[in-house]
Write a structure and sequence with these properties.
There is one protein chain. By secondary structure, the chain is mainly alpha-helical. 53% of the residues lie in helices and 10% in strands. It has helices at 5-19, 31-40, 51-70, 74-88, 114-131, 167-187; strands at 93-97, 100-106, 138-140, 149-151. Strands 1-2 form a two-stranded antiparallel ribbon. A two-stranded antiparallel ribbon has the order 3-4. Helix 1 (5-19) packs across helix 3, helix 3 (51-70) runs antiparallel to helix 4 (74-88) and helix 3 runs parallel beside helix 5. The radius of gyration is 19 Å and the shape is globular.
């Protein structure tokens, strides 16, 4: 699937945001953790650096997680994305900056609250997936005891494990060991 570079980028950011509350405990409890997340994805614009802003981003994290959970049900996912678009009052405009020189969309004013800006961009990225009939790219990790979400950007939509806990490697090692145990039992 060919996606606009900003759509793919924002979907990755949404995935990471959702996973801050799903694996390894809550990873979004302090301003420094929010700062680190925003720096990782080069998010710019106005910041309040207060607890209210942090709580608003945590609330957005819950909404993003609900969209992931609803992905198998198109109609429910559409409802949730439309609700997020309405809530953020998304108003698209084209821009580019030194750190991202390609033209891309911003969907809220630079002085809008952080959670509003993030939510609008994430809602639009989800809307792009819906319009392309690609919601099935939003998945939950297939590893037992892992609640992480993932965005499957592979060509054939075959990715089933997340990046958060080394799940693919652990599952492959377990399968290898099970095969070799079975071979040893048969050889006796």
């Amino acid at each position: 699937m060919a996606m606009a570079h900003d759509t793919e980028f924002v979907l990755r950011a949404a995935c990471v945001l959702a996973n801050t509350g799903r694996t390894h405990g809550d990873q979004l409890t302090e301003q420094s953790q929010l700062d680190e997340y925003l720096t990782e994805f080069g998010m710019t614009g106005h910041r309040d650096h207060d607890d209210r802003e942090l709580q608003a981003v945590r609330k957005l994290r819950v909404a993003v997680g609900r969209i992931w959970a609803a992905a198998p049900e198109d109609e429910r996912a559409v409802e949730l994305v439309n609700a997020l678009l309405r809530q953020t009052r998304a108003t698209p405009w084209l821009t580019r900056h030194a750190e991202m020189p390609q033209w891309h969309l911003h969907l809220a004013a630079p002085d809008a609250p952080l959670a509003t800006r993030l939510g609008a961009e994430m809602a639009m990225a989800f809307a792009d997936l819906i319009r392309a009939d690609e919601l099935r790219r939003l998945k939950l990790c297939a590893a037992p005891e892992c609640d992480a979400v993932l965005i499957d950007l592979s060509r054939n939509r075959s990715r089933i494990f997340c990046d958060t806990g080394n799940c693919a490697n652990r599952q492959h090692v377990a399968a290898y060991r099970a095969r070799h145990t079975a071979i040893e039992v048969c050889a006796r």
